[in-house]
Amino acid sequence: MSNLPKIAWIGLGIMGSPMSENLLKAGYQVTGFTLEQDKLDRLAKAGGTAAGSIAEAVKDADVVITMVPASPQVEAISYGPEGILENAKQGALVIDMSSITPQTSVDLAKNAAEKGIRVIDAPVSGGEAGAIEAVLSIMVGGEQADFDEALPILEALGKTIVLCGPHGSGQTVKAANQLIVAVNIQACAEAVVFLEKSGVDLQAALDVLNGGLAGSTVLTRKKDNFLNRDFKPGFRIDLHHKDMGIVTDAARNVGAALPVGAVVAQLVASLRAQGDGGLDHSALLRAVERLSGQQV
């Protein structure tokens, strides 16, 4: 029998499935629950255990990891008679890896503490590729002791793992991350359209740009998306739209001006309104193409 903590995983989407599988590879027992049967089948095939409900998944778990789209989903799986807080054992550690509002994380930690359950917020950056390769950047909010306990688990999922401060701090840093990523993708998209309309070899141009100061992880990860117009979702526009709402609202609350971020947030919103919400966020290129008079 393994001495490693038993893990319950709630939410087996684009990110959650490969992340849970990396824990299985690291030797952890993982019991999972999600709404899609094919994702449960995938977990079982990888060596995990599929549960029929949240309550069943978490009842014997030492650690509960959640990876769902937004604050409403975190609240739905956490509260109520069938939720995590009513069914996890006392002393369990909840690691919420969803990207949600900082206040939702603060409230969850407070309510969990009343049940004798500990919580850290640990949102990630790196997209589907980072999840598959276990090289995610993980920004954590919570108590030092809980971070220390969670660290071996997080090290099976990511490469850069940092405690950023008290509850909600991980979500604040993730919001800043999403601001930087969105602005970076928008700049890359504008450069692509400019280069193509100028008749430059796009592949060559992006290669040389990525070798200089204009280079970035975003350009490295999304270059092929731009070149091939391949917008299969690694991180959907719908989710980035949600995240831009989080960062603009949080910035307003603390009195921080985000002039460029506000413009990009509107461009993300317009792309979503045009029916592209299910595409990868590199599809911001489509918005620039439309503005430039191209048929998309």
Q: What report would you give on this structure?
A:
The protein has 296 residues and is an alpha/beta fold. It has a 6-stranded parallel β-sheet with strand order 3-2-1-4-5-6, sandwiched between helices. Strands 7-8-9 form a 3-stranded mixed β-sheet. The chain is globular and about 60 Å long. The mean pLDDT is 97.
Topology:
Elements: E1 7-10, H1 16-25, E2 30-33, H2 37-45, E3 49-50, H3 54-58, E4 63-66, H4 71-78, H5 84-87, E5 93-96, H6 102-113, E6 118-121, E7 124-125, H7 127-133, E8 136-141, H8 144-155, E9 158-165, H9 169-197, H10 202-210, H11 217-228, H12 237-254, H13 259-276, H14 284-291
Parallel strand pairs: 1-2, 1-4, 2-3, 4-5, 5-6, 8-9
Antiparallel strand pairs: 7-8
Which percent range fits the helix content?
40-55%
Distance between the termini: 56 Å
Report strand order across the widest sheet: 3-2-1-4-5-6
Uncertain stretches: none
Shape: globular
Q: Please identify the structural class as seen in this structure.
A: alpha/beta
The total of beta strands comes to: 9
Strand content: 5-15%
Largest sheet report: 6 strands, parallel
Count the DSSP helices.
Answer: 14
Radius of gyration: 20 Å
Q: What is the chain-wise order of helices and strands?
A: EHEHEHEHHEHEEHEHEHHHHHH
In short:
This protein has helices at 16-25, 37-45, 54-58, 71-78, 84-87, 102-113, 127-133, 144-155, 169-197, 202-210, 217-228, 237-254, 259-276, 284-291; strands at 7-10, 30-33, 49-50, 63-66, 93-96, 118-121, 124-125, 136-141, 158-165.
